[in-house]
Design the sequence.
């Protein structure tokens, strides 16, 4: 470098000062040669980049490296917003890429490069083209490829959530589609690990992805400023996953909630893209049956051939983020459902397409509270309990197909830790205590009575059952109910199914595993006093059967209609 400067100063300097004796010795071509020798290569051959979009954590570039350096040729590169964020992202990427269970849904991490004033970058393996530019009609070879894409996307985000990291950057611009050079199968890849490291490294607010309103949940579209906890941030990812699942199922490259400029260009000050997207979500989900038929029609019947996808879409695209299915739960459904379909195919079981569509739509309408308010649900479309014999026959086979439940890392909330279970309620939507009380009060759910054995009866816990179709997050199983006030001689037979006509009260149990006292259709209570006596017996019996539960920690709240 010193030699270059000396040559440059000796030859070009006098030339610029107008010294005639030097110009006669150096030809025009020689002057340009000296300039090339004395100029740093980074200034001669700068990185050529094409901007693809921005996310809360990174700005993404497709980079072609023309000079030797730290960035591999033809690598897909993400640029960090600042040096502290880059360091935290690099640490996370190194740790995660060394994990043997790191999901295939992520693009392969190559290295991280800090170019000083030019920025800090992370390099990933070239992953094809963005989802929004993918040619569906020409690239997809089989339904298995599409199912693999859905599974890989859910597994990748569930893995991040198990590490306590929200992504917050999922959209058609941050998900790439590529051809596997060995198998020629189309694959889905998520580039980078999103905004989680930035939230750890920086105390300032993060910026949502520009131009990705079609993938944002309603709570984001209705707010100018977002201040939230980890659970709410992960619920934002769940909504984006629901949009992606609907997009993949429809063989479409665009979000079903994407708006065109003509939808909001007339009144840009009052009705911008953000507001137009929110209104389109309300319009589309107001008629969920037509929404599903549109997805199925675009996907050539793909959705109704795999009706469990309806459960994913309806539970992920939920207006209330507190009731939205987590990515971990969604991935569990995919694993078990695909395993069951494989067993059916092996046994030669065929399903009539029209019957399959009817059953799928009926199940979706029954759980329509995920998209619409509870009063809009038809009482005669309550979901029925699965056949217990069929479920039990598949239990061991489904367990064998599930991945091992690894111990979660430092997760802020337990509901994001792995819960790989195969029970009769698997796939049914979760409901909060407030939501299930509203559903029960409206007569929109049924109860099936269970026989818990003589031990429970001797402890005073009689007429016990569960609500069909809705689960409690605390234990992952259906909401538990009991029917007090029916008299000493009245024991409802196991298997009795009846609609709830009234909520009498709630037994509050530590850990959220609350029990709801209800009255069933055709089984009226004898009065307030018998109800109170049976509730007291139930609470005493529950404490007796659960040694780690203290009587003073179990409370009963009576529900009154004012």
Sequence:
């Amino acid at each position: 470098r010193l030699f270059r400067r000396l040559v440059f100063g000796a030859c070009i300097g006098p030339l610029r000062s107008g010294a005639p004796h030097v110009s006669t010795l150096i030809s025009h071509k020689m002057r340009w040669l000296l300039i090339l020798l004395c100029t740093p290569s980074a200034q001669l051959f700068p990185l050529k980049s094409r901007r693809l979009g921005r996310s809360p954590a990174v700005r993404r570039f497709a980079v072609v490296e023309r000079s030797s350096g730290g960035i591999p040729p033809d690598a897909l590169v993400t640029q960090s917003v600042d040096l502290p964020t880059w360091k935290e992202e690099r640490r996370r990427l190194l740790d995660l890429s060394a994990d043997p269970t790191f999901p295939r849904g992520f693009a392969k991490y190559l290295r991280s490069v800090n170019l000083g004033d030019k920025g800090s970058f992370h390099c990933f393996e070239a992953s094809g083209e963005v989802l929004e530019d993918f040619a569906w009609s020409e690239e997809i070879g089989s339904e298995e490829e599409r199912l693999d894409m859905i599974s890989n996307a859910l597994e990748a985000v569930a893995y991040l959530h198990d590490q306590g990291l929200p992504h917050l950057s999922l959209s058609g611009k941050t998900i790439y589609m590529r051809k596997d050079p060995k198998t020629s199968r189309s694959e889905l890849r998520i580039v980078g690990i999103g905004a989680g490291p930035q939230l750890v490294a920086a105390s300032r607010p993060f910026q949502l992805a520009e131009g990705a309103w079609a993938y944002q949940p309603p709570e984001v579209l209705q707010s100018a400023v977002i201040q939230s906890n980890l659970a709410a941030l992960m619920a934002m990812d769940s909504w984006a996953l629901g949009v992606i699942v609907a997009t993949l199922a429809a063989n479409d490259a665009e979000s079903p909630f994407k708006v065109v400029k003509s939808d909001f260009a007339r009144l840009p000050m009052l009705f911008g893209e953000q507001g137009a997207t929110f209104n389109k979500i309300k319009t589309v989900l107001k008629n969920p049956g037509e929404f599903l038929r549109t997805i199925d029609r675009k996907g050539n019947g793909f959705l109704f051939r795999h009706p469990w996808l309806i459960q994913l879409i309806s539970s992920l695209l939920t207006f209330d983020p507190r009731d939205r299915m987590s990515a971990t739960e969604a991935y569990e459904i995919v694993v078990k459902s695909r395993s069951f379909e494989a067993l059916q195919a092996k046994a030669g079981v065929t399903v009539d397409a029209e019957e399959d569509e009817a059953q799928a739509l009926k199940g979706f309408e029954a759980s329509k509270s995920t998209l619409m308010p509870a009063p809009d649900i038809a009482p005669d479309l309550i979901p029925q309990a699965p056949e217990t014999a069929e479920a039990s026959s598949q239990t061991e086979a489904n367990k064998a197909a599930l991945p091992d439940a690894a111990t979660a890392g430092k997760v802020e909330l337990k509901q994001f830790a792995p819960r790989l279970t195969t029970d009769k309620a698997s796939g049914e939507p979760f409901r909060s205590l407030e939501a299930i009380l509203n559903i029960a009060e409206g007569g929109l759910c049924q109860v099936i009575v269970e026989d818990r054995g003589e031990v429970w009866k001797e402890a005073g816990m009689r007429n016990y059952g569960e609500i069909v179709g809705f689960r409690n997050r605390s234990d992952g199983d259906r909401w538990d109910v009991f029917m007090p006030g029916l008299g000493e001689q009245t024991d409802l037979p196991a298997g009795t199914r009846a609609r709830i006509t009234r909520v009498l009260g709630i037994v509050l149990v530590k850990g959220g595993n609350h029990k709801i006292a209800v009255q069933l259709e055709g089984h009226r209570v004898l009065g307030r006093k018998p109800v109170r006596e049976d509730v007291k017996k139930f609470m005493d019996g529950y404490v007796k059967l659960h040694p780690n539960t203290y009587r003073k920690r179990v409370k009963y709240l009576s529900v009154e209609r004012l």
About this structure: The domain at 58-62+73-416 is CATH 1.10.510.10 (Transferase(Phosphotransferase); domain 1). Residues 12-68, 363-424 have pLDDT under 50 and may be disordered. The chain has three domains: 2-39, 58-62+73-416, 433-558. The CA atoms of residues 132 and 253 lie 5 Å apart.
